[in-house]
Design a protein that fits this description.
Number of helices of chain A: 14
Largest interface: A-B, 114 and 116 residues
Order of helices and strands of chain B: HHHHHHHHHHHHHH
Distance between the termini of chain B: 28 Å
Order of helices and strands of chain A: HHHHHHHHHHHHHH
Number of strands of chain A: 0
Low-confidence stretches of chain A: 1-6
Number of domains of chain A: 2
Number of helices of chain B: 14
CATH architecture of one domain in chain B: Orthogonal Bundle
Shape of chain A: globular
Mean pLDDT of chain A: 89
Oligomer: heterodimer
Number of strands of chain B: 0
Chain lengths: 279, 308
Protein backbone atom coordinates (compact mmCIF):
# COMPACT_ATOMS: atom_id res chain seq x y z
CA UNK A 1 0.00 0.00 0.00
CA UNK A 2 2.68 2.44 1.08
CA UNK A 3 4.76 1.81 -1.98
CA UNK A 4 1.88 1.92 -4.42
CA UNK A 5 0.61 5.15 -2.86
CA UNK A 6 3.91 6.84 -3.54
CA UNK A 7 4.18 5.44 -7.03
CA UNK A 8 0.72 6.31 -8.33
CA UNK A 9 0.01 9.42 -6.31
CA UNK A 10 -3.04 7.91 -4.60
CA UNK A 11 -3.93 5.41 -1.93
CA UNK A 12 -6.60 3.36 -3.73
CA UNK A 13 -6.14 -0.40 -3.58
CA UNK A 14 -6.31 -2.91 -6.38
CA UNK A 15 -3.78 -1.53 -8.85
CA UNK A 16 -1.78 -4.76 -9.10
CA UNK A 17 -4.83 -6.98 -9.35
CA UNK A 18 -6.76 -4.94 -11.93
CA UNK A 19 -3.79 -4.12 -14.13
CA UNK A 20 -2.49 -7.67 -13.88
CA UNK A 21 -5.86 -9.15 -14.81
CA UNK A 22 -6.32 -6.65 -17.67
CA UNK A 23 -2.93 -7.45 -19.15
CA UNK A 24 -3.47 -11.20 -18.74
CA UNK A 25 -6.89 -11.10 -20.40
CA UNK A 26 -5.69 -8.75 -23.15
CA UNK A 27 -2.77 -11.10 -23.69
CA UNK A 28 -4.69 -14.33 -24.09
CA UNK A 29 -7.71 -12.95 -25.99
CA UNK A 30 -6.11 -10.36 -28.27
CA UNK A 31 -2.32 -10.26 -28.30
CA UNK A 32 -1.42 -13.95 -28.31
CA UNK A 33 -3.79 -14.88 -31.17
CA UNK A 34 -2.73 -11.82 -33.18
CA UNK A 35 0.91 -12.73 -32.54
CA UNK A 36 0.18 -16.20 -33.96
CA UNK A 37 -1.02 -14.57 -37.17
CA UNK A 38 2.03 -12.30 -37.37
CA UNK A 39 4.27 -15.30 -36.71
CA UNK A 40 2.61 -17.38 -39.42
CA UNK A 41 2.70 -14.40 -41.76
CA UNK A 42 6.36 -13.69 -41.16
CA UNK A 43 7.27 -17.35 -41.62
CA UNK A 44 6.17 -16.90 -45.22
CA UNK A 45 8.87 -14.27 -45.55
CA UNK A 46 8.65 -11.06 -47.56
CA UNK A 47 9.03 -13.04 -50.71
CA UNK A 48 6.17 -15.41 -49.88
CA UNK A 49 3.88 -12.58 -48.76
CA UNK A 50 4.66 -10.55 -51.85
CA UNK A 51 4.10 -13.55 -54.08
CA UNK A 52 0.64 -14.18 -52.67
CA UNK A 53 -0.29 -10.48 -52.68
CA UNK A 54 0.69 -10.30 -56.37
CA UNK A 55 -1.57 -13.17 -57.43
CA UNK A 56 -4.08 -11.53 -59.78
CA UNK A 57 -7.15 -12.67 -57.82
CA UNK A 58 -5.70 -11.53 -54.48
CA UNK A 59 -4.60 -8.25 -56.00
CA UNK A 60 -8.07 -7.66 -57.45
CA UNK A 61 -9.73 -8.42 -54.10
CA UNK A 62 -7.41 -6.09 -52.20
CA UNK A 63 -8.00 -3.36 -54.79
CA UNK A 64 -11.76 -3.83 -54.51
CA UNK A 65 -11.71 -3.68 -50.70
CA UNK A 66 -9.34 -0.73 -50.43
CA UNK A 67 -10.71 1.27 -53.35
CA UNK A 68 -14.37 0.93 -52.43
CA UNK A 69 -13.69 1.53 -48.72
CA UNK A 70 -11.90 4.73 -49.71
CA UNK A 71 -14.77 5.82 -51.97
CA UNK A 72 -17.39 4.98 -49.34
CA UNK A 73 -15.47 6.86 -46.64
CA UNK A 74 -15.21 9.89 -48.93
CA UNK A 75 -18.95 9.87 -49.64
CA UNK A 76 -19.61 9.43 -45.92
CA UNK A 77 -17.30 12.34 -45.14
CA UNK A 78 -19.45 14.69 -47.22
CA UNK A 79 -22.85 13.46 -46.08
CA UNK A 80 -21.71 12.68 -42.55
CA UNK A 81 -20.55 16.25 -42.13
CA UNK A 82 -23.91 17.56 -43.28
CA UNK A 83 -25.76 15.13 -40.98
CA UNK A 84 -23.59 16.01 -37.98
CA UNK A 85 -23.98 19.75 -38.64
CA UNK A 86 -27.75 19.47 -39.02
CA UNK A 87 -28.14 17.28 -35.91
CA UNK A 88 -26.18 19.72 -33.74
CA UNK A 89 -27.11 23.13 -35.14
CA UNK A 90 -30.72 22.86 -36.27
CA UNK A 91 -33.87 22.12 -34.34
CA UNK A 92 -36.44 20.15 -36.31
CA UNK A 93 -39.08 17.53 -35.68
CA UNK A 94 -37.62 14.09 -34.98
CA UNK A 95 -34.08 15.26 -34.38
CA UNK A 96 -33.56 13.28 -31.17
CA UNK A 97 -34.89 10.07 -32.70
CA UNK A 98 -32.63 10.49 -35.71
CA UNK A 99 -29.70 11.24 -33.45
CA UNK A 100 -30.23 7.96 -31.60
CA UNK A 101 -30.74 6.17 -34.93
CA UNK A 102 -27.33 7.21 -36.23
CA UNK A 103 -25.86 4.38 -34.13
CA UNK A 104 -28.03 1.78 -35.89
CA UNK A 105 -25.19 0.38 -38.03
CA UNK A 106 -23.25 -0.33 -34.83
CA UNK A 107 -26.13 -2.18 -33.22
CA UNK A 108 -27.64 -3.92 -36.26
CA UNK A 109 -25.86 -7.22 -36.98
CA UNK A 110 -23.96 -7.08 -40.26
CA UNK A 111 -25.74 -10.13 -41.67
CA UNK A 112 -29.10 -8.44 -41.08
CA UNK A 113 -27.88 -5.25 -42.73
CA UNK A 114 -26.50 -7.35 -45.58
CA UNK A 115 -29.73 -9.12 -46.47
CA UNK A 116 -31.74 -5.92 -45.94
CA UNK A 117 -29.54 -3.92 -48.33
CA UNK A 118 -29.55 -6.78 -50.84
CA UNK A 119 -33.36 -6.88 -50.72
CA UNK A 120 -33.57 -3.10 -51.16
CA UNK A 121 -31.19 -2.85 -54.10
CA UNK A 122 -31.94 -5.96 -56.19
CA UNK A 123 -33.52 -4.97 -59.50
CA UNK A 124 -36.97 -5.72 -58.11
CA UNK A 125 -36.32 -4.18 -54.68
CA UNK A 126 -37.71 -0.83 -53.56
CA UNK A 127 -34.62 1.17 -54.51
CA UNK A 128 -33.13 -1.23 -57.00
CA UNK A 129 -36.19 -0.94 -59.23
CA UNK A 130 -35.83 2.85 -59.28
CA UNK A 131 -32.16 2.50 -60.21
CA UNK A 132 -32.99 -0.16 -62.80
CA UNK A 133 -35.45 2.24 -64.42
CA UNK A 134 -32.51 4.64 -64.83
CA UNK A 135 -30.43 1.81 -66.27
CA UNK A 136 -28.21 1.43 -63.19
CA UNK A 137 -27.52 -1.96 -61.66
CA UNK A 138 -26.59 -1.75 -57.99
CA UNK A 139 -26.88 -5.16 -56.35
CA UNK A 140 -24.24 -7.72 -57.36
CA UNK A 141 -21.90 -5.02 -58.67
CA UNK A 142 -19.11 -2.98 -57.00
CA UNK A 143 -21.71 -0.23 -56.59
CA UNK A 144 -23.60 -2.52 -54.20
CA UNK A 145 -20.44 -3.03 -52.15
CA UNK A 146 -20.02 0.74 -51.92
CA UNK A 147 -23.63 1.08 -50.69
CA UNK A 148 -22.99 -1.49 -47.92
CA UNK A 149 -19.76 0.23 -46.91
CA UNK A 150 -21.51 3.62 -46.78
CA UNK A 151 -24.08 2.03 -44.45
CA UNK A 152 -21.53 0.61 -42.00
CA UNK A 153 -19.18 3.62 -42.11
CA UNK A 154 -21.78 6.35 -41.68
CA UNK A 155 -21.83 6.61 -37.85
CA UNK A 156 -18.04 6.87 -37.59
CA UNK A 157 -18.01 10.27 -39.32
CA UNK A 158 -21.11 11.62 -37.60
CA UNK A 159 -20.10 10.50 -34.10
CA UNK A 160 -16.56 11.86 -34.47
CA UNK A 161 -17.74 15.25 -35.75
CA UNK A 162 -20.71 15.82 -33.45
CA UNK A 163 -18.80 16.59 -30.23
CA UNK A 164 -16.45 18.89 -32.13
CA UNK A 165 -19.28 20.88 -33.73
CA UNK A 166 -20.91 21.08 -30.32
CA UNK A 167 -17.76 22.48 -28.75
CA UNK A 168 -17.39 25.08 -31.51
CA UNK A 169 -17.65 28.52 -30.02
CA UNK A 170 -20.36 30.27 -32.04
CA UNK A 171 -18.82 33.48 -30.70
CA UNK A 172 -15.89 32.97 -33.05
CA UNK A 173 -18.20 32.81 -36.05
CA UNK A 174 -19.85 35.96 -34.76
CA UNK A 175 -16.50 37.71 -34.44
CA UNK A 176 -15.71 36.70 -38.01
CA UNK A 177 -19.06 38.15 -39.11
CA UNK A 178 -18.47 41.44 -37.29
CA UNK A 179 -15.05 41.64 -38.90
CA UNK A 180 -16.79 41.57 -42.28
CA UNK A 181 -16.50 37.92 -43.23
CA UNK A 182 -19.31 36.44 -45.28
CA UNK A 183 -20.96 33.30 -43.89
CA UNK A 184 -19.00 31.21 -46.37
CA UNK A 185 -15.70 32.83 -45.32
CA UNK A 186 -16.49 32.26 -41.65
CA UNK A 187 -17.25 28.59 -42.32
CA UNK A 188 -14.14 28.11 -44.39
CA UNK A 189 -11.65 30.07 -42.29
CA UNK A 190 -13.03 29.60 -38.76
CA UNK A 191 -15.13 26.44 -38.64
CA UNK A 192 -13.36 24.22 -41.18
CA UNK A 193 -9.88 24.31 -39.53
CA UNK A 194 -11.43 23.00 -36.31
CA UNK A 195 -13.49 20.30 -38.03
CA UNK A 196 -10.77 19.06 -40.38
CA UNK A 197 -8.77 16.91 -37.91
CA UNK A 198 -11.93 15.27 -36.55
CA UNK A 199 -13.16 14.66 -40.07
CA UNK A 200 -9.85 12.98 -40.88
CA UNK A 201 -10.16 10.76 -37.79
CA UNK A 202 -13.70 9.79 -38.73
CA UNK A 203 -12.63 9.17 -42.31
CA UNK A 204 -9.83 6.84 -41.16
CA UNK A 205 -12.19 4.96 -38.81
CA UNK A 206 -14.78 4.52 -41.57
CA UNK A 207 -12.08 3.47 -44.03
CA UNK A 208 -10.62 0.91 -41.58
CA UNK A 209 -14.05 -0.53 -40.95
CA UNK A 210 -14.82 -0.62 -44.68
CA UNK A 211 -11.66 -2.50 -45.62
CA UNK A 212 -12.39 -5.26 -43.12
CA UNK A 213 -16.15 -5.39 -43.53
CA UNK A 214 -17.60 -8.76 -44.44
CA UNK A 215 -21.15 -9.50 -43.30
CA UNK A 216 -23.01 -6.56 -44.78
CA UNK A 217 -21.13 -6.79 -48.08
CA UNK A 218 -21.24 -10.43 -49.17
CA UNK A 219 -25.01 -10.57 -49.69
CA UNK A 220 -25.16 -7.54 -51.99
CA UNK A 221 -21.77 -7.98 -53.68
CA UNK A 222 -22.42 -10.89 -56.02
CA UNK A 223 -18.87 -12.02 -55.15
CA UNK A 224 -17.55 -12.39 -58.68
CA UNK A 225 -13.78 -12.95 -58.66
CA UNK A 226 -11.91 -9.99 -60.21
CA UNK A 227 -15.08 -7.86 -60.13
CA UNK A 228 -16.89 -7.80 -56.82
CA UNK A 229 -14.91 -10.08 -54.54
CA UNK A 230 -13.66 -8.41 -51.35
CA UNK A 231 -10.46 -9.34 -49.50
CA UNK A 232 -12.15 -10.70 -46.32
CA UNK A 233 -14.27 -13.03 -48.48
CA UNK A 234 -11.13 -14.26 -50.21
CA UNK A 235 -9.68 -15.12 -46.77
CA UNK A 236 -12.78 -17.20 -46.07
CA UNK A 237 -12.55 -18.89 -49.47
CA UNK A 238 -8.86 -19.70 -48.96
CA UNK A 239 -9.66 -21.16 -45.54
CA UNK A 240 -12.39 -23.32 -47.01
CA UNK A 241 -9.84 -24.59 -49.55
CA UNK A 242 -7.45 -25.27 -46.62
CA UNK A 243 -5.02 -22.77 -48.18
CA UNK A 244 -3.83 -21.50 -44.79
CA UNK A 245 -0.83 -19.74 -46.31
CA UNK A 246 -2.97 -17.71 -48.66
CA UNK A 247 -5.44 -16.81 -45.92
CA UNK A 248 -2.60 -15.87 -43.56
CA UNK A 249 -0.90 -13.69 -46.15
CA UNK A 250 -4.03 -11.68 -46.97
CA UNK A 251 -4.86 -11.36 -43.27
CA UNK A 252 -1.33 -10.18 -42.47
CA UNK A 253 -1.55 -7.47 -45.12
CA UNK A 254 -4.93 -6.35 -43.76
CA UNK A 255 -3.67 -6.41 -40.16
CA UNK A 256 -0.65 -4.31 -41.11
CA UNK A 257 -2.98 -1.79 -42.67
CA UNK A 258 -5.16 -1.78 -39.54
CA UNK A 259 -2.08 -0.95 -37.46
CA UNK A 260 -1.07 1.87 -39.79
CA UNK A 261 -4.58 3.30 -39.68
CA UNK A 262 -4.72 3.01 -35.90
CA UNK A 263 -1.47 4.93 -35.67
CA UNK A 264 -2.82 7.51 -38.10
CA UNK A 265 -6.04 7.86 -36.10
CA UNK A 266 -4.10 8.40 -32.87
CA UNK A 267 -1.93 11.01 -34.57
CA UNK A 268 -4.88 12.92 -36.00
CA UNK A 269 -6.55 12.85 -32.61
CA UNK A 270 -3.45 14.23 -30.91
CA UNK A 271 -3.34 16.88 -33.66
CA UNK A 272 -7.02 17.62 -33.10
CA UNK A 273 -6.54 17.97 -29.34
CA UNK A 274 -3.64 20.38 -29.83
CA UNK A 275 -5.68 22.31 -32.34
CA UNK A 276 -8.78 22.53 -30.18
CA UNK A 277 -6.66 23.34 -27.16
CA UNK A 278 -5.49 26.43 -29.02
CA UNK A 279 -8.92 27.71 -29.93
CA UNK B 1 -6.62 30.78 -36.77
CA UNK B 2 -4.02 31.88 -34.27
CA UNK B 3 -5.17 35.48 -34.63
CA UNK B 4 -8.74 34.61 -33.80
CA UNK B 5 -7.58 32.41 -30.96
CA UNK B 6 -5.58 35.28 -29.51
CA UNK B 7 -8.51 37.69 -29.68
CA UNK B 8 -11.12 35.41 -28.30
CA UNK B 9 -10.66 35.61 -24.49
CA UNK B 10 -10.67 39.41 -24.45
CA UNK B 11 -13.70 39.72 -26.68
CA UNK B 12 -15.84 37.17 -24.96
CA UNK B 13 -16.82 39.40 -22.07
CA UNK B 14 -17.76 42.28 -24.33
CA UNK B 15 -19.61 40.03 -26.73
CA UNK B 16 -21.66 38.06 -24.21
CA UNK B 17 -24.65 40.38 -23.71
CA UNK B 18 -24.57 41.56 -27.27
CA UNK B 19 -24.65 37.98 -28.47
CA UNK B 20 -27.82 37.44 -26.48
CA UNK B 21 -29.44 40.47 -28.07
CA UNK B 22 -28.42 39.33 -31.48
CA UNK B 23 -30.08 35.97 -30.95
CA UNK B 24 -33.37 37.85 -31.42
CA UNK B 25 -32.60 38.87 -35.01
CA UNK B 26 -31.45 36.55 -37.80
CA UNK B 27 -27.98 35.77 -36.47
CA UNK B 28 -24.76 36.04 -38.39
CA UNK B 29 -23.83 32.55 -37.24
CA UNK B 30 -26.54 30.76 -39.15
CA UNK B 31 -26.84 29.71 -42.73
CA UNK B 32 -29.46 31.44 -44.87
CA UNK B 33 -32.91 29.84 -44.38
CA UNK B 34 -32.98 28.28 -47.85
CA UNK B 35 -29.54 26.75 -47.27
CA UNK B 36 -30.50 25.47 -43.83
CA UNK B 37 -33.63 23.87 -45.28
CA UNK B 38 -31.59 22.29 -48.03
CA UNK B 39 -29.01 20.89 -45.60
CA UNK B 40 -31.76 19.42 -43.42
CA UNK B 41 -33.37 17.91 -46.52
CA UNK B 42 -30.08 16.35 -47.63
CA UNK B 43 -29.41 14.95 -44.15
CA UNK B 44 -32.92 13.51 -43.85
CA UNK B 45 -32.77 11.94 -47.30
CA UNK B 46 -29.38 10.40 -46.55
CA UNK B 47 -30.55 8.99 -43.20
CA UNK B 48 -33.79 7.75 -44.74
CA UNK B 49 -31.92 5.90 -47.49
CA UNK B 50 -29.19 4.45 -45.29
CA UNK B 51 -30.84 3.98 -41.90
CA UNK B 52 -34.60 3.87 -42.08
CA UNK B 53 -35.21 1.90 -45.26
CA UNK B 54 -32.86 -1.03 -44.47
CA UNK B 55 -34.55 -1.35 -41.10
CA UNK B 56 -38.08 -1.13 -42.47
CA UNK B 57 -37.42 -3.65 -45.23
CA UNK B 58 -36.41 -6.28 -42.62
CA UNK B 59 -39.80 -6.16 -40.94
CA UNK B 60 -41.78 -5.83 -44.18
CA UNK B 61 -40.07 -8.87 -45.70
CA UNK B 62 -40.38 -10.86 -42.46
CA UNK B 63 -44.12 -10.30 -42.21
CA UNK B 64 -44.73 -10.27 -45.96
CA UNK B 65 -46.09 -13.84 -45.99
CA UNK B 66 -48.31 -13.29 -42.98
CA UNK B 67 -47.96 -13.77 -39.27
CA UNK B 68 -48.37 -17.55 -39.32
CA UNK B 69 -45.45 -17.99 -41.73
CA UNK B 70 -43.42 -15.72 -39.46
CA UNK B 71 -44.20 -17.76 -36.36
CA UNK B 72 -43.64 -21.03 -38.25
CA UNK B 73 -40.20 -19.85 -39.40
CA UNK B 74 -39.20 -19.02 -35.85
CA UNK B 75 -40.43 -22.28 -34.37
CA UNK B 76 -38.35 -24.46 -36.71
CA UNK B 77 -36.04 -26.68 -34.60
CA UNK B 78 -32.97 -25.26 -36.38
CA UNK B 79 -34.14 -21.71 -35.71
CA UNK B 80 -34.67 -22.47 -32.04
CA UNK B 81 -31.24 -24.10 -31.85
CA UNK B 82 -29.66 -21.01 -33.45
CA UNK B 83 -31.46 -18.67 -31.06
CA UNK B 84 -30.40 -20.83 -28.13
CA UNK B 85 -26.77 -20.90 -29.26
CA UNK B 86 -26.67 -17.11 -29.74
CA UNK B 87 -28.10 -16.63 -26.24
CA UNK B 88 -25.57 -19.07 -24.80
CA UNK B 89 -22.65 -17.36 -26.52
CA UNK B 90 -23.77 -13.92 -25.31
CA UNK B 91 -24.33 -15.30 -21.79
CA UNK B 92 -20.68 -16.38 -21.66
CA UNK B 93 -18.99 -13.61 -23.64
CA UNK B 94 -20.73 -10.61 -22.06
CA UNK B 95 -19.87 -11.43 -18.41
CA UNK B 96 -16.25 -12.11 -19.40
CA UNK B 97 -15.94 -8.70 -21.03
CA UNK B 98 -17.88 -7.12 -18.18
CA UNK B 99 -15.32 -8.31 -15.65
CA UNK B 100 -12.49 -7.22 -17.92
CA UNK B 101 -14.13 -3.83 -18.49
CA UNK B 102 -14.38 -3.21 -14.74
CA UNK B 103 -10.81 -4.35 -14.08
CA UNK B 104 -9.32 -2.38 -16.98
CA UNK B 105 -11.25 0.82 -16.26
CA UNK B 106 -10.24 0.69 -12.57
CA UNK B 107 -6.56 0.30 -13.49
CA UNK B 108 -6.63 2.91 -16.27
CA UNK B 109 -8.88 5.53 -14.69
CA UNK B 110 -7.72 5.38 -11.07
CA UNK B 111 -3.95 5.11 -11.47
CA UNK B 112 -1.14 6.72 -13.42
CA UNK B 113 1.41 4.32 -14.86
CA UNK B 114 3.82 4.23 -17.80
CA UNK B 115 2.38 2.72 -20.97
CA UNK B 116 -1.18 3.66 -20.09
CA UNK B 117 -2.02 5.18 -23.47
CA UNK B 118 -0.58 2.11 -25.19
CA UNK B 119 -2.85 -0.09 -23.07
CA UNK B 120 -5.88 2.02 -24.02
CA UNK B 121 -4.93 1.75 -27.71
CA UNK B 122 -4.54 -2.03 -27.40
CA UNK B 123 -7.95 -2.31 -25.72
CA UNK B 124 -9.46 -0.61 -28.80
CA UNK B 125 -7.42 -2.74 -31.21
CA UNK B 126 -10.11 -5.39 -31.84
CA UNK B 127 -12.34 -2.66 -33.33
CA UNK B 128 -9.78 -2.08 -36.10
CA UNK B 129 -9.33 -5.75 -36.96
CA UNK B 130 -11.52 -7.25 -39.68
CA UNK B 131 -13.99 -9.75 -38.19
CA UNK B 132 -12.76 -12.37 -40.64
CA UNK B 133 -9.19 -11.87 -39.42
CA UNK B 134 -10.49 -12.13 -35.84
CA UNK B 135 -11.90 -15.56 -36.67
CA UNK B 136 -8.82 -16.61 -38.61
CA UNK B 137 -6.43 -15.98 -35.71
CA UNK B 138 -8.26 -18.55 -33.58
CA UNK B 139 -8.23 -21.05 -36.43
CA UNK B 140 -4.47 -20.53 -36.76
CA UNK B 141 -4.06 -21.03 -33.02
CA UNK B 142 -6.52 -23.82 -32.25
CA UNK B 143 -7.40 -25.38 -35.64
CA UNK B 144 -6.20 -28.81 -36.79
CA UNK B 145 -3.43 -27.07 -38.79
CA UNK B 146 -2.89 -24.57 -35.99
CA UNK B 147 -0.15 -24.00 -33.48
CA UNK B 148 -1.92 -25.88 -30.67
CA UNK B 149 -3.89 -28.15 -33.01
CA UNK B 150 -1.92 -31.40 -32.48
CA UNK B 151 -2.01 -30.93 -28.70
CA UNK B 152 -5.77 -30.32 -28.69
CA UNK B 153 -6.46 -33.29 -30.95
CA UNK B 154 -4.39 -35.58 -28.69
CA UNK B 155 -6.44 -34.50 -25.70
CA UNK B 156 -9.78 -34.52 -27.57
CA UNK B 157 -10.43 -30.85 -26.86
CA UNK B 158 -12.63 -29.18 -29.46
CA UNK B 159 -12.28 -25.41 -29.76
CA UNK B 160 -12.62 -24.50 -33.43
CA UNK B 161 -15.91 -25.63 -35.05
CA UNK B 162 -17.41 -25.87 -31.54
CA UNK B 163 -18.81 -23.62 -28.83
CA UNK B 164 -15.45 -22.52 -27.30
CA UNK B 165 -14.23 -21.15 -30.64
CA UNK B 166 -17.47 -19.27 -31.24
CA UNK B 167 -17.26 -17.80 -27.74
CA UNK B 168 -13.60 -16.79 -28.19
CA UNK B 169 -14.28 -15.07 -31.52
CA UNK B 170 -17.25 -13.27 -29.97
CA UNK B 171 -15.22 -12.20 -26.93
CA UNK B 172 -12.58 -10.80 -29.30
CA UNK B 173 -14.96 -8.63 -31.34
CA UNK B 174 -16.85 -7.36 -28.28
CA UNK B 175 -13.66 -6.94 -26.23
CA UNK B 176 -13.58 -3.13 -25.77
CA UNK B 177 -17.31 -2.39 -25.46
CA UNK B 178 -17.64 -2.23 -21.66
CA UNK B 179 -14.17 -0.81 -21.00
CA UNK B 180 -14.49 2.09 -23.43
CA UNK B 181 -17.85 3.05 -21.95
CA UNK B 182 -16.41 3.13 -18.41
CA UNK B 183 -12.91 4.59 -18.80
CA UNK B 184 -13.87 8.16 -19.81
CA UNK B 185 -16.58 8.33 -17.13
CA UNK B 186 -14.35 7.03 -14.34
CA UNK B 187 -11.58 9.42 -15.39
CA UNK B 188 -14.09 12.28 -15.15
CA UNK B 189 -15.34 11.17 -11.73
CA UNK B 190 -11.85 11.16 -10.20
CA UNK B 191 -10.76 9.38 -7.03
CA UNK B 192 -12.17 11.73 -4.37
CA UNK B 193 -15.21 9.69 -3.30
CA UNK B 194 -13.20 6.49 -3.08
CA UNK B 195 -10.47 8.13 -1.01
CA UNK B 196 -13.01 9.48 1.47
CA UNK B 197 -14.53 6.02 1.85
CA UNK B 198 -11.08 4.54 2.45
CA UNK B 199 -10.24 7.06 5.19
CA UNK B 200 -13.58 6.19 6.79
CA UNK B 201 -12.36 2.62 7.07
CA UNK B 202 -13.99 0.88 4.11
CA UNK B 203 -12.17 -2.07 2.56
CA UNK B 204 -11.23 -1.96 -1.11
CA UNK B 205 -14.13 -4.24 -2.07
CA UNK B 206 -16.60 -2.13 -0.06
CA UNK B 207 -15.33 1.01 -1.78
CA UNK B 208 -15.95 -0.54 -5.16
CA UNK B 209 -19.39 -1.96 -4.34
CA UNK B 210 -20.78 1.01 -2.41
CA UNK B 211 -19.03 4.04 -3.93
CA UNK B 212 -17.73 3.32 -7.43
CA UNK B 213 -20.41 0.96 -8.72
CA UNK B 214 -23.38 3.26 -7.95
CA UNK B 215 -21.57 6.07 -9.78
CA UNK B 216 -20.94 4.07 -12.94
CA UNK B 217 -23.89 1.68 -13.07
CA UNK B 218 -25.72 3.36 -15.96
CA UNK B 219 -22.62 3.62 -18.13
CA UNK B 220 -21.94 0.00 -17.22
CA UNK B 221 -25.44 -0.95 -18.34
CA UNK B 222 -24.96 0.91 -21.65
CA UNK B 223 -21.70 -0.93 -22.23
CA UNK B 224 -23.27 -4.29 -21.44
CA UNK B 225 -26.20 -3.60 -23.79
CA UNK B 226 -23.91 -2.67 -26.68
CA UNK B 227 -21.68 -5.65 -25.94
CA UNK B 228 -24.68 -7.96 -25.89
CA UNK B 229 -26.11 -6.64 -29.17
CA UNK B 230 -22.81 -7.21 -30.91
CA UNK B 231 -22.29 -10.62 -29.26
CA UNK B 232 -25.69 -11.88 -30.45
CA UNK B 233 -25.16 -10.44 -33.93
CA UNK B 234 -21.52 -11.12 -34.76
CA UNK B 235 -21.26 -12.72 -38.16
CA UNK B 236 -17.82 -12.61 -39.81
CA UNK B 237 -15.63 -13.80 -36.95
CA UNK B 238 -18.08 -16.48 -35.86
CA UNK B 239 -18.60 -17.61 -39.44
CA UNK B 240 -14.89 -18.47 -39.76
CA UNK B 241 -14.65 -20.51 -36.55
CA UNK B 242 -18.10 -22.11 -36.46
CA UNK B 243 -17.85 -24.75 -39.18
CA UNK B 244 -21.55 -24.17 -40.00
CA UNK B 245 -22.90 -27.38 -38.48
CA UNK B 246 -26.62 -26.86 -38.83
CA UNK B 247 -28.54 -27.04 -35.57
CA UNK B 248 -25.27 -27.32 -33.65
CA UNK B 249 -22.81 -24.50 -34.34
CA UNK B 250 -25.04 -22.10 -36.27
CA UNK B 251 -25.74 -18.87 -34.42
CA UNK B 252 -28.63 -16.65 -35.50
CA UNK B 253 -26.63 -14.60 -38.06
CA UNK B 254 -25.15 -17.76 -39.59
CA UNK B 255 -28.59 -19.34 -39.78
CA UNK B 256 -29.84 -16.19 -41.54
CA UNK B 257 -27.13 -16.63 -44.16
CA UNK B 258 -28.08 -20.28 -44.76
CA UNK B 259 -31.77 -19.47 -45.11
CA UNK B 260 -31.06 -16.54 -47.42
CA UNK B 261 -28.82 -18.64 -49.65
CA UNK B 262 -31.56 -21.27 -49.81
CA UNK B 263 -33.91 -18.55 -51.13
CA UNK B 264 -36.01 -18.87 -47.99
CA UNK B 265 -36.39 -15.10 -47.68
CA UNK B 266 -39.33 -15.07 -45.28
CA UNK B 267 -37.55 -17.27 -42.73
CA UNK B 268 -34.25 -15.39 -43.15
CA UNK B 269 -35.95 -12.06 -42.52
CA UNK B 270 -38.01 -13.51 -39.66
CA UNK B 271 -34.84 -14.46 -37.77
CA UNK B 272 -33.27 -11.16 -38.87
CA UNK B 273 -36.23 -9.26 -37.45
CA UNK B 274 -35.45 -10.65 -33.99
CA UNK B 275 -31.91 -9.26 -34.19
CA UNK B 276 -33.16 -5.98 -35.66
CA UNK B 277 -35.61 -5.73 -32.76
CA UNK B 278 -32.76 -6.34 -30.34
CA UNK B 279 -30.72 -3.60 -32.05
CA UNK B 280 -33.64 -1.17 -31.80
CA UNK B 281 -34.24 -2.00 -28.14
CA UNK B 282 -30.54 -1.54 -27.43
CA UNK B 283 -30.46 1.88 -29.10
CA UNK B 284 -33.66 2.96 -27.35
CA UNK B 285 -32.32 1.88 -23.96
CA UNK B 286 -29.02 3.64 -24.63
CA UNK B 287 -30.75 6.87 -25.66
CA UNK B 288 -33.04 6.66 -22.63
CA UNK B 289 -30.15 6.07 -20.22
CA UNK B 290 -28.27 9.02 -21.69
CA UNK B 291 -31.34 11.22 -21.56
CA UNK B 292 -32.31 10.39 -17.97
CA UNK B 293 -28.87 10.11 -16.41
CA UNK B 294 -26.96 12.79 -18.29
CA UNK B 295 -24.80 15.08 -16.16
CA UNK B 296 -26.75 18.01 -14.76
CA UNK B 297 -24.68 20.74 -16.43
CA UNK B 298 -25.31 19.37 -19.91
CA UNK B 299 -28.53 20.63 -21.44
CA UNK B 300 -28.84 18.33 -24.44
CA UNK B 301 -28.45 14.57 -24.86
CA UNK B 302 -26.82 15.28 -28.22
CA UNK B 303 -23.81 16.33 -26.20
CA UNK B 304 -23.31 12.91 -24.67
CA UNK B 305 -21.89 11.48 -27.85
CA UNK B 306 -19.22 8.89 -27.74
CA UNK B 307 -16.53 8.22 -30.27
CA UNK B 308 -17.64 5.26 -32.33
Amino acid sequence: MQRSARRHGNSLPGFGLTLGYSLFYLGIIVLLPLATLVLRGSSLGWHGLWGIAMQPRVMAALETSFGLALAAAAINAVFGMIVAWVLVRYAFFGRRVLDAAVDLPFALPTAVAGIALAALYTPNGWLGSVAAACGIKIAYTPLGIAIALIFVGQPFIVRTLQPVILELDAGLEEVAATLGATRWQALRRVVWPVLAPALLTGFALAFARGVGEYGSVIFIAGNLPFVSEIAPLLIVIKLEEFDYEGATAIATIMLALAFVLLLFINLTQAWSRRRLGDV
Amino acid sequence: MSNVAGLEPGLEGACGPRAKMRAMQPPATREAPWLAAMLIAIALTFLALFLVMPLVVVFVEALGAGLSAYVAALSEPDARAAIGLSLTVAAIAVPLNLVFGLMASWAVAKFAFPGKSLLVTLIDLPLSVSPVVAGLIYVLLFGAQGLLGPFLIRHHIEIVFALPGIVLATVFVTFPFVARELIPLMEDLGNGDEEVALTLGATGFQVFMRVTLPNIRWALLTGVLLCNARAMGEFGAVSVVSGHIRGLTDTMPLYIEILYNEYNGVAAFAVASLLAGLALATLAAKALLEFVFRPRDVEDPVQRVRRP
